[in-house]
Amino acid sequence: MRSERERIAAIAELAVGIGANVQPDQVLTVSAELGQEAIARAVAEAAYRRGALFVDVSYYDPHIKHARLRHARRETLGYVPPWIGERILAIGEAGAARVSFQGPLEPHLFDDIDPELLGLDLLPRTRESITVTAKEQTNWSILPFPNRDWAVLVHPDLAPEDAHELLWQQIERILRLDEPDPVAAWEARIAQLESVSGRLDALALDRLHYHGPGTDLTVGLLPGSRWISGRMRSIHGIDFVANLPTEETFTAPDPLRVDGVVTATKPLLVPGTAPVEGLRVRFEHGRAVQIDADAGAEILRSMTARDEGAARLGEVALVDRESRIGQSGSVFYSILLDENAASHLALGNAYPFSVHAGPDRDRANVSAIHVDFMVGSDEVDVTGVTRDGAEVPLLRGGAWVI
Amino acid sequence: MRSERERIAAIAELAVGIGANVQPDQVLTVSAELGQEAIARAVAEAAYRRGALFVDVSYYDPHIKHARLRHARRETLGYVPPWIGERILAIGEAGAARVSFQGPLEPHLFDDIDPELLGLDLLPRTRESITVTAKEQTNWSILPFPNRDWAVLVHPDLAPEDAHELLWQQIERILRLDEPDPVAAWEARIAQLESVSGRLDALALDRLHYHGPGTDLTVGLLPGSRWISGRMRSIHGIDFVANLPTEETFTAPDPLRVDGVVTATKPLLVPGTAPVEGLRVRFEHGRAVQIDADAGAEILRSMTARDEGAARLGEVALVDRESRIGQSGSVFYSILLDENAASHLALGNAYPFSVHAGPDRDRANVSAIHVDFMVGSDEVDVTGVTRDGAEVPLLRGGAWVI
């Protein structure tokens, strides 16, 4: 068995290698949370070994946000000092690389905070970060990194030590680090996903229809909607894999043509808050007009009230059952993993590059938020409808049928 | 005895209260190092309770710098991404408050790094930070915060637990937290120091002369040199105490008129490096032309070669034996404490506000560095010489005699 140091170094190599693809003489920024020091340091070492010019690590401390939500005046909670966004824009202008890690830390820290307040302070997420990503200025990657709190959340019936070890093994398998050549394994999976994306693009679908338990939803697509998977390219010509793992093909829907009801198939974790369980959303003419849940609906209601686009869809993503996350059978309470376990939708901002350049790109949704929620399972059929009304089965029993 | 939480909260109250004097609706930035999370969080809570608009905490991780010094190319070590300095300037322009903490963490981390390389990467210190301080744009304060590594460094003969407890008790005494009313105690000491500063200003000295074991040094003053102690005022009219503890009165010398030899009376700690022990510096016409030490001379030689002003003096500070740091008898390996134990000099940048506004201010020293080293003890006499050549004893046996 590999030592903990070797395990961490293997994730770091994926992050700066096939993930963000950090270039010689490039600056790399690392966004980490307290508790992720070990991976941040391993990434810095790996990046400097590859010839990075500078590695700028920033650590987010959720306790500082907690103190704010406890003691600051409500009307100040939307304030963000200008230098936080300016830094992100400068990183984009400089064409730096970006790496960050997911995996909930201290998942119960905000349990004593009114969920509605949590919707007012979106940090560490920033509007500028969405802008920089949309402009494709940087090569970036998000990866999971195990921690003990997270392991206990995923495997509450195990002793913390055992839960931690099991989560490590699951994440190593999900990251294909159990393969003799993890990079080659990722190249093969990405090629497969790109082939599916090509076939979906060739169908020139007008809309998707989802049908399953508690779900009967139609999602319109734009004529310019473009299916994207796996690898992207920055405007500086640097290829990168934005999410590791990546198991999806996604595009931007028509934010005005979403109708029906959809029931989430996994809990939704808004960073820093309790999971939203049993989410049900009803759409009319593209707007989420009713949001219910068994627990946590308020936080999502608050977030979708933030701006006009926050209650409309910005992303539609399809995932087959070959996903190793889906195969694991675990719920990870991490968007990065859970969204790659199942087909999903996102409320809020669209990635502009998921619409072909042209007038359609301005029709994609715009918002300060981007919140993914899982709607796919083996029981949810997804069917495409072409512009001339022909129905094309896409996913049946969780498997691709095109 | 107070709980650890109460002890930490007491330091936080000093920091945001009499120290930085954080105002309602003001933004506060906190610069902390990993290992200082507890005090950063207590400061955030105290600041929000006082009505702060936002608390922006940034954590410095010396392991990232260590990875750089181990693996990055030498010629890149002076590079700093533009957004780091731009952030500091924006904080100054916004007139935010600033709080930071000292106390060496992981003091042996850089023992395997060539000291000469350490002089090339000055982060987390930035040129812009010196600019913002010099412009008096912000109300700020630096305080000590105990940690176990530091305690073991100061008290190597004790068990770590005992060393930690003793360091806590020493720092509580040094911060006058053992007084019934710590703020009143600080008001009294600051009034005393301001009285000394007033008398020194009234003498209108031409130069100082230091005489003691291994020291025979003359330090010229500018006609506009202004003695400052304790409390300062930002350009926004906010009073603050920049250092807690503060036991000194200081001014800017004439960077062209320093001659003779001076022997440091305490080890010099450059953050992130091994202490410089037994430092001896010879000055000619203001320049440090020879730097020797029993250990660590290279790092200081490297730093003083950085720019023209780096080998000249920017600060001269006098401290009497009433200092509780001096009374403790300990060497703290922390500039903040040790400089307040004894009279000291600083190579590098002058604080412009320590020269009265006017043409003399442009004669004060300018540099990217500011490195204090202690030259005072009960055995070092300090004498003032007026413009007409009269000698005025200032410190004898460590006590003020004016």
The most extensive interface, with participating residues per chain, is: A-B, 40 and 40 residues
Q: How much strand content do the residues of chain A show?
A: 25-35%
- Stretches with pLDDT under 50, minimum 5 residues of chain A: none
- Give the quaternary arrangement of the chains: homodimer
Q: Tell me the span between the first and last alpha carbons of chain A.
A: 40 Å
Largest sheet of chain A: 8 strands, antiparallel
What does the radius of gyration of chain A come to?
A: 20 Å
List keywords for this structure.
homodimer, 402 residues, alpha+beta, Thermophilic metalloprotease-like, 2 domains, eight-stranded antiparallel beta sheet, five-stranded antiparallel beta sheet, 12 helices, 19 strands, 31% helix, globular
Report on the architecture of this protein:
Two copies of one chain form a homodimer. Chain A has 402 residues and is α+β, with helices and mostly antiparallel strands. The first copy, chain A, folds into two domains: 4-144, 3-Layer(aba) Sandwich (Thermophilic metalloprotease-like); 182-400, no CATH class. Helices cover 31% and strands 26% of the residues of chain A. Chain A has helices spanning 4-19, 37-49, 62-71, 82-93, 115-118, 127-134, 148-154, 160-174, 182-203, 297-304, 324-328, 335-338, and strands at residues 27-33, 54-60, 97-102, 139-144, 205-212, 215-221, 228-229, 231-233, 239-241, 248-251, 253-263, 280-284, 287-292, 313-319, 344-348, 370-374, 381-386, 391-396, 399-400. The longest helix of chain A is centred in the middle third of the chain and has 22 residues, at 182-203. The mean pLDDT of chain A is 94. The interface between A and B is large, with 40 and 40 residues.
